[in-house]
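re: that chain from earlier
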Amino acid sequence: MKRATLTADAKRELQEIWVLIALDNEPAADRIIDRLYDAFSKLAEYPNFGPAESDLGPLVRSWPVSRYMVYYRPIDGGVEILHIYDGARDIPSLFR
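^ sequence. v structure.
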């Protein structure tokens, strides 16, 4: 079974997403985290699903989940989740 590995940055970003949403609605925060983890699993199985984001780095790909963009790269045995950012952010500046 292929798996998704999260970087320390991605783990921190997931926590920040949960806290931000949970301030208003904990069940909604749980749901978005569940949706993100479901996407990670699917990306691990199909690592070339998302479009290439070569301007952000070698092998970087992206996949939308609700208002968030998951940035990942294929690795042996699955994918490495690099970042999870709100889609409204200036993404290229975050990769510099």
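The longest strand covers residues 78-86.
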